[in-house]
């Protein structure tokens, strides 16, 4: 028999990271007879032991096992040879062992090992090849029982070794995959300390939580992101872990070694977050799933029991299997399987599981029916929070954007307030941990609930923050949905142009990345904006496309599309068809039993009945809508406004007056000042409406340019900087040398001159596409050595903002209207997307100063009028823009205390402490204690 010496050579793997934590565990072995290192492929079992042996320099016999080593004479031949290589002993001459001599040779080996007085490691690597061998078991048992305490057997295996462990008890140490997996701290050390990548904290958390510390994946990830920039990594995380290198490893090292039966089992059960044998038998039509699961557990095939005893696949492995299942069987078959699982869980009275699988299978009517069964069966807040995260856990391929809106529509009204508190707590926790990847998703969830409840301005802020995060991490479905909902908010606030910009961007993202769910909502919202402006022809093509997508891809959204279709037909004058579509929408809403859907559909149906003079039907629909929207303040306000219209048309002045009082009260209580102003200023242009100028430029907030109603894009950065300088110094002659110094600070004089002329030419051509000569430009003119940006034919939001701002209230009846318009114009700081250009800073500070002044004046005005909630809204706007504005904090807190709003006063006080005392070191607590004591109120810090 020829000996392959390579099988007896200690491998010399360079460890990715020195495993001090595991080395300490091995050091404290207490003269263990056996150290078992078992776990899934790629957890660094061999690397751990080889690096430990090399560092400790302990005499070691290393035996790399194969399937042929399951015979006793082969096993003993290699083991004897390894020992002879290490120990020169005449008692144990080298050479091959014949089958008939195996027992005798074993006795010799055992005798030698029993007399060992110096430490010795015997490593049996890939022990799974011999674990079930009837010839090897007695050999191992005998050596373990009789070996000297100085001899330690280290068994490396993918399966837990079948050893007489009970007898050994304290002489046995075990490390599993969970021990071998990298911890968050080790993850940080691996990428940042060992490989100098400077990953951010949220990236480290994301890697660890997604891979669950799987060691092999770290090396694969390192090879991919090692030379990436920060922005490139953000794009990479968006598709992680669906990365070919990782999935190729799992295919070759894990999946391809399994039988076809096991592969099929793995694919099918990847749909399940919990591996329950009774469910699986029913699902697959078999009777031995428990046997297969036990096999997978013994093989350490990325499967484990959690702390509750539930059997699960490792998250990364399950994502891989789920992707393979879709490739193997097709999306339609996978969807069918989800629905089959839903029915199985329903039959077994596991309603939460059934609801989740109906959602994933897009059977929304049945999902709504199951929710009706469970909404009063369990504690509703915990149930919704559980489902909110669990849907993604059940279906690895499901985007948050596909389930959040429907899930929130299923929420019982009674728990909305408590649910908001829970989500706000989670947002704060994620901010503290700087877990930005998950923060934008949670902000979106919270914003959606607040938006539907009617907290419009707070929701807008959260949607904007979520949008920033989702764009940063290339989460396109969430980004698109954020943009669409921001567009809806701008519609409500009377900013149609801003709404159209946002929803068009949403549609672009949706269509570019083939996201049908968000595409549908974007199309529906665009149609709604056009219907606001009575542009039926433009609206019709969008709503028809939305209807096609809803019918094919998202039945749960039909209720919204049907409602918009009803509105379009009403505006068109086809009232009979409008009522028909409205009834279809209301019928769907009733089937889903969703309060929001019922309110939404009945409100629109009532409008059609109103125009058709069916007063009783209209009144009935409005009453249903009012009841459904009882906790959705903004939409309730819309219903009451329609009731005013109804009673006005019927000539019922008494009920009209009652409803008008109710409407005003809601607006005042909730701070919906834009609705009140819209009614007062009916017939006049709003701040969002732009004059009929050929060139329209928005610089407050998102930078936008349009020429003759067509968007303008300036791709050349130097041309853009030139325009920014011109806008900042508009209607003034600018010396060319000053212009060059400000915009082109670097380069030789000739290069700067050339760059200036090219940039200027590009800018003029961008602003005036039909321009043939720069000398004929209407906007950028030259007089000798000076240049001039002429705004006579330009609409600039910043200029209108300046003209409307700072109006004092006394003696001027139109002052509040002007300030309100100015406030509506201020969608963000001056060129807020370009914070580092020094020549913009002075103008930015001036605009911000006026914004704060305007809001202070409006707050003072509404306080004097006794309209406190409107006053609060403007004070909060100031603090959102400048969280370090000490005087505003004090005025706001004092006013809240005057109105006995102690809880809110405490919240604002703690914000003041956070920003002024903790961040700036300005002591404010003593002042606050004195202020609170004046009103005999305790402050909670």
Automatic annotation (TrEMBL):
GO terms for biological process: phosphorelay signal transduction system; regulation of DNA-templated transcription. This is LuxR family maltose regulon positive regulatory protein. Residues 709-789 form the OmpR/PhoB-type domain. Residues 796-929 form the Bacterial transcriptional activator domain. SUPFAM superfamilies: C-terminal effector domain of the bipartite response regulators (SSF46894), P-loop containing nucleoside triphosphate hydrolases (SSF52540), TPR-like (SSF48452). GO terms for molecular function: DNA binding. Belongs to the AfsR/DnrI/RedD regulatory family. Pfam families: AAA_16 (PF13191), BTAD (PF03704), TPR_MalT (PF17874), WHD_MalT (PF25873). It comes from Scopulibacillus darangshiensis.
């Amino acid at each position: 028999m020829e000996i392959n010496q390579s099988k007896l050579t200690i491998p010399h793997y360079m460890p990715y990271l020195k495993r001090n934590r595991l080395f300490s565990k091995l050091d404290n072995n207490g003269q263990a007879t056996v150290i078992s290192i078992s776990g899934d492929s790629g957890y660094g079992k061999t690397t751990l032991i080889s690096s430990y042996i090399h560092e400790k320099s302990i005499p070691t016999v290393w035996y790399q096992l194969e399937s042929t080593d399951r015979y006793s004479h082969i096993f003993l031949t290699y083991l004897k040879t390894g020992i002879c290589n290490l120990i020169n002993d005449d008692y144990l001459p080298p050479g091959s062992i014949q089958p008939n001599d195996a027992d005798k040779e074993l006795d010799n080996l055992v005798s030698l090992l029993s007399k060992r007085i110096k430490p010795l490691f015997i490593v049996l690597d890939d022990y799974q090849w011999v674990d079930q061998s009837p010839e090897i078991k007695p050999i191992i048992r005998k050596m373990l029982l009789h070996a000297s305490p100085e001899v330690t057997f280290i068994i490396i295996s993918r399966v837990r070794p079948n050893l007489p462990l009970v007898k050994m008890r304290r002489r046995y140490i075990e490390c599993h995959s969970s021990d071998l997996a990298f911890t968050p701290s080790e993850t940080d050390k691996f990428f940042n300390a060992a490989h100098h990548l400077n990953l951010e904290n949220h990236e480290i958390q994301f890697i660890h939580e997604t891979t669950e510390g799987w060691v092999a994946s770290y090396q694969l990830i390192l090879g991919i992101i090692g030379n990436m920039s920060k922005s490139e990594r953000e794009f990479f995380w968006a598709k992680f872990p669906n990365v070919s290198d990782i999935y190729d490893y799992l295919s070759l090292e894990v999946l391809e070694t399994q039988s076809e039966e096991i592969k099929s089992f793995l694919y099918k059960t990847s749909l399940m977050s919990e591996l329950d044998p009774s469910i699986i038998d029913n699902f697959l039509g078999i009777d031995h799933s428990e046997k297969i699961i036990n096999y997978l557990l013994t093989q350490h095939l990325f499967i484990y029991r959690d702390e509750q005893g539930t059997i699960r696949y490792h998250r990364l492995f399950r994502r891989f299997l789920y992707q393979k299942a879709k490739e193997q069987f097709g999306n339609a078959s996978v969807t069918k399987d989800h629905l089959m699982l839903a029915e199985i869980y329903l039959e077994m009275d596991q309603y939460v599981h059934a609801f989740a699988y109906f959602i994933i299978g897009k059977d929304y009517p049945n999902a709504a029916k199951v929710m009706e069964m469970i909404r009063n069966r369990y504690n509703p807040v915990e149930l919704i929070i559980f489902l909110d995260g669990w849907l993604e856990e059940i279906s690895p391929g499901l985007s948050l954007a596909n389930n959040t809106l429907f899930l929130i529509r299923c929420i019982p009204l009674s728990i909305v307030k408590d649910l908001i508190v829970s989500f706000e707590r989670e947002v704060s926790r994620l901010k503290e941990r700087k877990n930005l990847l998950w923060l934008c998703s949670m902000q979106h969830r919270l914003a959606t609930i607040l938006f539907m409840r009617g907290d419009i301005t707070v929701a807008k802020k959260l949607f904007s923050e979520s949008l920033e995060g989702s764009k940063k991490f290339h989460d396109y479905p969430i980004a698109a949905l954020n943009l669409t909902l921001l567009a809806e908010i701008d519609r409500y606030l009377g900013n149609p142009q801003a709404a159209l910009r946002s929803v068009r961007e949403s549609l672009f993202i949706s269509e570019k990345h083939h996201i049908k769910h968000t595409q549908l909502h974007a199309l529906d919202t665009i149609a709604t904006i056009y219907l606001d402006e009575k542009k039926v022809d433009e609206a019709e093509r969008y709503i028809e496309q939305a209807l096609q997508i809803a019918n094919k891809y998202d039945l749960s959204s039909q209720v919204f599309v049907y409602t918009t279709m009803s509105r379009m037909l009403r505006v068109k004058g086809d009232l009979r068809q409008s009522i028909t579509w409205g009834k279809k929408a209301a019928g769907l809403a009733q089937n889903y039993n969703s309060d929001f859907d019922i309110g939404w559909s009945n409100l629109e149906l009532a409008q059609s009945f109103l125009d058709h003079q069916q007063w009783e039907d209209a009144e009935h629909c409005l009453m249903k809508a009012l009841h459904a929207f009882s906790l959705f303040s903004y939409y309730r306000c819309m219903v009451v406004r329609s009731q005013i219209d109804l009673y006005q048309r019927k000539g019922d002045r008494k009920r009209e007056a009652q409803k008008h009082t109710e409407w005003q009260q809601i607006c005042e209580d909730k701070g919906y000042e834009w609705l009140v102003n819209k009614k007062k200023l009916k017939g006049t242009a709003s701040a969002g409406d732009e004059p009929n100028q050929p060139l329209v430029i928005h610089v407050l907030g998102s930078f936008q340019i349009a020429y003759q109603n067509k968007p303008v894009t300036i791709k050349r950065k130097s041309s853009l900087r030139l325009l920014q300088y011109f806008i900042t110094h508009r209607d003034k002659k600018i010396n060319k040398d000053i212009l060059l110094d400000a915009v082109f600070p670097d380069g030789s004089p000739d290069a700067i001159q050339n760059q200036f002329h090219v940039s200027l030419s590009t800018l003029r051509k961008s602003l005036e596409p039909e321009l043939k000569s720069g000398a004929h430009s209407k906007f950028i003119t030259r007089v000798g050595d000076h240049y001039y940006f002429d705004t006579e034919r330009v609409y600039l939001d910043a200029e209108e903002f300046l003209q409307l701002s700072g109006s004092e209230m006394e003696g001027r009846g139109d002052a509040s209207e002007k300030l309100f318009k100015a406030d509506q114009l201020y969608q963000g700081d001056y060129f807020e997307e370009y914070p580092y250009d020094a020549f913009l800073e002075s103008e930015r500070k001036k605009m911000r100063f006026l914004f704060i002044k305007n809001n202070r004046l409006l707050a003072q005005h509404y306080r004097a009028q006794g309209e406190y909630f409107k006053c609060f809204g403007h004070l909060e706007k100031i603090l959102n823009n400048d969280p370090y504005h000490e005087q505003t904090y004090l005025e706001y807190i004092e006013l809240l205390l005057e109105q006995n709003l102690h809880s809110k006063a405490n919240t604002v006080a703690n914000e003041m402490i956070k920003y002024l005392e903790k961040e700036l070191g300005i002591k404010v607590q003593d002042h606050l204690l004195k202020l609170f004591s004046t009103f005999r109120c305790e402050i909670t810090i």
